[in-house]
Amino acid sequence: MPTWRPDPSFYPSPRIAEQGPPEALAYVAVFDPERQRPDGIAVVDVDEKSPSYARIVGSVSMPNTGDELHHFGWNACSSNLCPNAPHPHVERRYLVVPGLRSSRIHILDTKPDPVNPKVVKVIEPEEIAAKTGYTRPHTIHCGPDGIYVTALGNAEGNAPGGIFMIDHETFEPLGPWEKDHGPQKLAYDGWWHLGYDTMVTSEWGTPDTFENGLIPEVLLGSQYGRRLHFWDLNKRTHLQEIDFGEEHQLVFELRPAHDPTKAHGFVNCVISLKDLSSSIWTWYRDGERWAVKKVISIPAEPAHADDLPPMLKGFGAVPPLVTDIDLSMDDRFLYVAC
After folding, report:
1. For the chain, where are the alpha helices, taking DSSP H only?
2. pTM for the full model?
């Protein structure tokens, strides 16, 4: 009799994942900011023993122009082994690639030829809006009970943004994740502590405040995102909001500890209105509540006003603009992109 086995790239713990084989290919989003050519996914050889190491060895273009590809992800991963909602027989096969500007979601099949993935399905924005109430999909996370998609706008492109779900295998949009938004209006990233039944979300802004670049009046008026939100992961209800204060703008990337017994994580704040610095914060359990504290500050670098755009001339400095962070699998190192 045949025996069903979980995908070999699923691991029951981060410690075991570290012992697994390294990836041989990396999938990288490429996009045309002028929106004249279709965006695409480039395939990079990351096998150090390969003669084509660190080179683009394949690519696929999207069927339309103007998608603006950002944070894409797999349809399934190790979280499918979660004991609360196990789906161990789903394959890590499809890339789920959202277009932030177009509100389309593309499904790419990597199994027949990993070097040349194929677009096998496009979920149009009208279907997403009708079934989930959201637009502007931004981040993809493969969860134990489906694909989680953070969206920056509601069906009309306004607040509240939030999270919606897609089926692992059929890619049918299933509906909004939240049952209760509480005070949450702005959205950006979302991730979880499965062992603590907690979802964490962060904030950017509504689409009209970022799609054509940041708006100085909104930024200087402290109207971009500056809060973390904590949710009951199973009940899908809002539990707690933490405001970083008017000085801190654009609270972005969430990186919870990989160790499921640890109740902490890291998030970056892109800019301080006080001195243009960027900062890294940690969230953690403080009794029965969640708390945050700043752990790293990255200062702006002095620059002559003549070399700066109008919004920065008065500061006389160039901000580091930390836009991404990544936590190593053993939770020892945090990598920060300025």
Report:
1. 14-18, 125-132, 216-220, 310-313
2. 0.95
